[in-house]
Design goal:
CATH architecture of the largest domain: Orthogonal Bundle
Structural class: mainly alpha
Oligomer: single chain
Shape: elongated
CATH topology of the largest domain: Rna Polymerase Sigma Factor, Chain: A
InterPro entries: RNA_pol_sigma-70-like, RNA_pol_sigma-70_dom, RNA_pol_sigma70_r2, RNA_pol_sigma70_r4_t2, RNA_pol_sigma_r2, RNA_pol_sigma_r3/r4-like, WH-like_DNA-bd_sf
Family: Belongs to the sigma-70 factor family. ECF subfamily.
Organism: Paenibacillus lignilyticus
Protein name: Sigma-70 family RNA polymerase sigma factor
Helix content: over 70%
Keywords: Sigma factor, Transcription, Transcription regulation
Number of helices: 9
Distance between the termini: 49 Å
Order of helices and strands: HHHHHHHHH
Radius of gyration: 17 Å
Largest sheet: none
Strand content: under 5%
Number of domains: 2
Length: 180
């Protein structure tokens, strides 16, 4: 049974179909939350909150083929809510960087720019848009909607982040970025 069929069954009240769907993407939800929160305990809380919210709202999924995107959007929203409650920035620990490096193949990142560089040299908003756009392959329009920002702002953030990364490649690893 494919994703579309499972989503339709879940929307009709089939709890087993929902459970199978959620379990299929649970690791992605955890990784997403961990990237935002930097804590395995908080990430697990977000997984639980995402399960609860998505189960209650499964009937609202209009395009079943985008179920994973819909789930990730809920997880990001839950992560951002948790960050707001904390009232502080994500702390990017060395353990988090190692975890992220293991998750994404570095061959997708050009030349000397590694995932560690991406995290170290971008602002929180730039990280957010880059992760959504390139890690989850979400369009810039969808990323802007998920972040609750205008499309133009999303494009600006993406452009600025890519410009920083290009500068990093051209200048080499020995030179530090300025924050803007």
């Amino acid at each position: 049974m494919g994703i579309i069929e499972r989503v339709k069954k879940a929307q009709q009240g089939d709890e087993q179909a929902y459970l199978e769907l959620f379990q299929q993407y649970e690791a992605d939800i955890y990784r997403t939350a961990y990237v935002y929160l930097g804590s395995s305990e908080d990430a697990l809380d977000v997984v639980q909150e995402t399960a609860y919210k998505s189960y209650k709202a499964i009937a609202t999924v209009k395009e079943p083929q985008y179920f994973k995107t819909w789930l990730i959007q809920i997880a990001i929203g839950c992560s951002i809510d948790m960050l707001r409650k904390r009232k502080k920035e994500v702390q990017w620990s060395p353990d988090l960087l190692d975890h992220l490096a293991a998750v994404k193949d570095e061959e997708d990142i050009p030349l000397s720019v590694s995932l560690r560089d991406l995290i170290d040299y971008l602002t929180a908003e730039e990280k957010h848009v880059i992760l959504l756009r390139f890690y989850y392959d979400i369009t810039i329009r969808e990323a802007a909607e998920m972040m609750g920002i205008p499309l133009g702002t999303g494009k600006t953030l993406l452009y600025r982040a890519l410009k920083k990364l290009r500068m990093r490649v051209e200048e080499g690893d020995s030179r530090e970025f300025k924050s803007n």
